Amino acid sequence: MAPTAFASAVPVRLVRQPTVLRTSAAAAVAPATAAVAGAASPTARGARRASQPCMSADAQASASAATESHDLNGTTIPGPLTPARNYLLIKNAPPPTTTAGGLILSTASAEKPTYGEVLAAGPGSYWPAGGLIPMVVAVGETVLFGKYGGTELTYDNAKSTLVTQDDVLCKLEGGVYSADAVVPILDRVFVKKAAAASESGGGIVLTAGAAGNDRNTGEVVSTGPGRLMENGQVEPMTFGTGATVLFAKFGGTEIKFGSDEYVMLRVTDIYAHW
């Protein structure tokens, strides 16, 4: 029988798979295949690692310090001491062992140091009506603070003090305790007191105590930027370095560098200048 006759006698039906099924199967397999390929590909793994942020050495040190225990007044605490509001944790400088003239001081006569390095700082405080009062003192800086301000404690076996930023008189540039290193903050004014008179107007010789009673004038050595106001602006100083000022007799904090006497004032302690 001829092939053509057979084809016409026995019809053949062809069954074709639906295109939709074939397409769906391929789409389902493709993501899984790509995921496996990505996981197995060293290039893909390297790209993902490169896109992840790398923690800096300082951040790693901070994270490590946050998990370490510390000693506070003989008691172990699980983490670092963190000052609140505008408080500063200061590691006190060691007390002097000799006077300016070279005399050796006993432990009792050595004056309590009122300066040191800032170990930690709070976030700042707020004005009564709102608005942040920023911290102008940073960790690592050396500051001079009031003799009677703050709370003394022992932190990690070192004599330390917690003070507010308001108790800080100035920064000491380079950590050096000298008049040349003084950097006043905010509205502080650093004044060198006028020399004491040795005689009265009538020629009477004055004692050291009497000579110093009315010494409320002096020369401005340096000033801070000015008083911070609630609107965030700074009230500018109306005088500068070299001016002579008249100030409140009992205002400010007296400081002595060597044989020279100074006073750290707030701008509101100053009555007049010339």
Structural class: alpha+beta
Strand order of the largest sheet: 8-9-3-4-7-10-11
The biggest sheet amounts to:
7 strands, antiparallel
Number of strands: 19
Please characterize this protein's 3D structure.
With 274 residues, this protein is α+β, with helices and mostly antiparallel strands. The chain is 20% helix and 31% strand.
Set down the secondary structure blueprint.
Layout: H1 3-9, H2 19-40, H3 42-51, H4 57-67, E1 70-72, E2 75-77, E3 87-92, E4 115-121, E5 125-126, E6 132-133, E7 142-145, E8 151-155, E9 158-164, E10 168-172, E11 182-184, E12 188-193, H5 208-211, E13 217-223, E14 227-228, E15 234-235, E16 244-247, E17 253-257, E18 260-266, E19 270-273
Antiparallel strand pairs: 1-2, 3-4, 3-9, 4-7, 5-6, 7-10, 8-9, 10-11, 12-13, 12-18, 13-16, 14-15, 16-19, 17-18
Summarize the structure.
With 274 residues, the protein is of the alpha+beta class. It is built from 5 helices and 19 strands.
Keywords:
274 residues; alpha+beta; seven-stranded antiparallel beta sheet; six-stranded antiparallel beta sheet; 31% strand; disordered N terminus
